[in-house]
Write a structure and sequence with these properties.
- The chain is α/β, with parallel strands linked by helices.
- It has 11 helices and 13 strands.
- It has a 7-stranded mixed β-sheet, sandwiched between helices. Strands 10-13-11-12 form a 4-stranded antiparallel β-sheet, with helices on one face.
- Helix 2 packs across helix 3, helix 2 runs antiparallel to helix 4 and helix 10 runs antiparallel to helix 11.
């Protein structure tokens, strides 16, 4: 047993104690700083244009200080006019200057205010819009897949599940790293930043309404705590966990995992098989790569197959799921297939084609 004690677990939880938040994927058209810079340039252009308009007709303006309006006075007048300050020390006195103020200066003033006020309002309303998006996302999220850990194992798991037809909108990634969550958002997945061993973080991922939970953190002790917490929040979800050490697999099952994959052991067995038979290793690698070549899938028994043996079907049957038992294709107790059975079969697919396995609902 290579799990640390309670003190080590507490220290780990303290290290990952971060403010959790939910982020949804979005299409970023332009960087915020670039947007602000562009609007400032537009505002400056409006200011310069206004000053040049005033200077072009400077004889129609009167300055209370010296009576004449030069270029500096024109910029001063444009600044106080566009900002609606209006000290009144420089005023249009000729008819042409007043007409210019009506048809040119006033529209420029409105444009200037729209640019500045629009930028301010956009910043102020961004949080409101984000909250609205989150509330709509939460209300629509049902029977989704929660992936804890977006490392190599988590990414591969999502890729495999999505290859069977699962939409990216139905996947939520939980990870303590903001950079990892940003990477998940960039790939189209919703993300929750925080320590998944804390129930409030998993609740933000709506884990209590999830159909499937994939636990793939970097540490085995974290996987145990996450599985315990997830099972407590959702009794009916299908929880699949990954561990590094084989001896920790029973603890994961006791914590509530329906299936436990030993990553180091599986890789070692594949290496050993490849040494003994490179061709067999290639076949096994092909089987675990979803979406091309040979795929292993689960599907229900169709009516035309009822009463037949596992070898009498069109597909290559590996195992038969009967109730809670997994029976080999050559198990004498299988007999003939029943309508309530499910089959684990090997099928050949082409790149781009989707093989959608049967996903039993909770309680099946």
């Amino acid at each position: 047993m290579k799990l640390p004690g309670h003190d080590a677990i507490a220290r780990q939880a303290g290290e990952h104690l971060v403010t959790h938040r939910v982020t949804l994927p979005r299409k970023v058209v332009e960087r915020p700083l670039r947007q602000v810079a562009k609007r400032l340039v537009m505002a400056l252009a409006v200011l310069v244009a206004t000053a040049l308009v005033v200077y072009a007709d400077h004889d129609g303006y009167h300055d209370n200080s010296d009576g004449s309006v030069d270029l500096l006075d024109a910029f001063y007048y444009a600044t106080v006019t566009l900002s609606t300050t209006g000290y009144g020390d420089i005023t249009p006195v000729s008819d042409s200057a007043r007409l210019t103020n009506i048809f040119v200066i006033t529209p420029l003033r409105v444009l200037f205010l729209i640019i500045l006020v629009g930028t301010t309002l956009e910043v102020l309303t961004e949080r409101t819009r984000e909250e609205w998006r989150l509330n709509r996302w939460r209300s629509a999220l049902r029977d989704h897949t929660v992936v804890v850990g977006f490392g190599t194992k988590g990414r591969s798991a999502i890729k495999t599940v999505c290859a069977t037809g699962l939409r990216k909108e139905q996947v939520v990634v939980v990870d303590p790293s903001s950079k990892v969550i940003d990477a998940a958002n960039a790939e189209g997945f919703a993300g929750v930043m925080g320590d998944a061993t804390r129930s409030e973080v998993l609740k933000r991922a709506e884990v209590h309404r999830a159909r499937q939970i994939i636990v793939a953190p970097q540490r085995d002790d974290t996987a145990v705590l996450v599985t315990l917490t997830a099972r407590q929040l959702n009794r009916g979800a299908n929880i699949v966990a990954a561990v590094r050490e084989e001896e920790n697999a029973p603890l994961l099952r006791q914590s509530g995992a329906d299936a436990v994959i030993t990553s180091s052991g599986a890789a070692g067995r594949l290496l050993g098989l490849s040494v003994l038979s490179p061709a067999a290793g290639m076949v096994m690698e092909d089987l675990i790569q979803q979406g091309s070549g040979l795929d292993i899938v689960e599907r229900p028994v169709v009516r035309a197959e009822v009463g037949r043996g596992p070898r009498e079907t069109d597909d290559l049957v590996v195992s038969v799921l009967r109730g809670h038992r997994v029976l080999g294709y050559d198990d004498p107790s299988v007999g003939t297939l029943r309508l309530t059975d499910r089959l684990i079969t090997i099928v050949r697919v082409t790149p781009g084609a989707q093989v959608t396995p049967h996903r039993p609902v909770n309680g099946d």
